[in-house]
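Design review, sub-item: ligand-bound model
Attendees: FS, YL, KQ
YL presented the inputs for the D-mannose complex:
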Amino acid sequence: MSNNKLLQGWRWYGPNDPVSLQDVKQAGAAAIVTALHHIPHGAVWPLEDIKERKELIEKEGLTWAVVESVPVHEAIKTKRGDVDQYLENYRQTLSNLADCGIKTVCYNFMPVLDWTRTQLDLVMKDGSKALYFDWTDLAIFDRYVLQREGAKQDYPKNIQEKAAKRFQTMDAEKLEALSEVVLMGIPSEDPIGLEDLQDSIDIYKTIGKEGLRENLLYFLSNIAGVCEEKGIHMTIHPDDPPYPILGLPRIVSSKEDLLFIINQETREFNGICFCTGSLGAGIANDVPDMLQGVKHRVHFAHLRNVKKDKEGNFYEADHLGGDVNMYEVVKILCEENQRRREPIPFRPDHGHQMLDDLNKVSNPGYSAIGRLRGLAELRGLELGITGDY
Ligand code: DNO
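KQ shared the predicted structure:
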């Protein structure tokens, strides 16, 4: 047993992030979570670029604790003909990172879209703004903008009806704005259009859930060697939101999914990024119970909260304010942390746009002050639980 404190992380988008490293220090975080966003997806991250980023972080007295993310190219997710070249590149990137001492890596296996919301500025009672997901708006995008075949029957009747009605009230500008928000979660360096999205949807139709699971296991078995040799922990991020959307399959949405992944590939390197916000958006998900089930494989955590309504629409709530029992989650994490040699890194995930940040532009969910509040609350919660003053 040790007296580890959880490692307090902060996502930083690199030198172009409007939130500076000095801001991060003032927010009280110790460890940086970042990625080389300038490297095209699928390409090898050069050793030099990794070193340069690491030095930048260390010069400020911080450490680069987690990579979020090394993106998994669509060629791997769909196991395309040229998959082996992309796997080779991925292994090389992991090896380069490990040689620089960075050994915890986050990734996701969501087809095409990395995260999906329908509104970025839902106004809270206190005037702050939150990200929001609304099934009716997604149905409008799906049926009337994307015009996906079979879209209609993928939604419950009441949502179908509401979508048809609301659509009548939306002009071209409103539809365009909705479309922009939905497509924002596509992590591509080139803007992707509706036709590309439709093409991808067709490809995944033939792959299905089982096929996607197989492709994930293929990916894991192909990187296992370098991970084991260099002590790398891979952490898969859950689906956000944890439902199949736009006809795309999902494989990291439920407790069963998480258990499948760690039970099929049992080697220690194969871990989970436990994102309480993503999982918490699932109506059937009991988040503390899920954490109990997989905690031994949690190598990274995103702590954030959501408030759902009975249709399953949700907004991002205060870190200690939504449907996820954050006290239970942090308690389980703290207990697990005592069994570890290395502390488990977490970061306050997202935050409301509030105070001075309401007048600034930042990456959606990643303004400074809302996350600062989240981090402060989570640190206090941890201290209150452990009593380890
Ligand atoms: C959004 C994030 C995701 C996450 C990736 C991990 O705020 O949680 O973009 O970084 O899905 O690969």
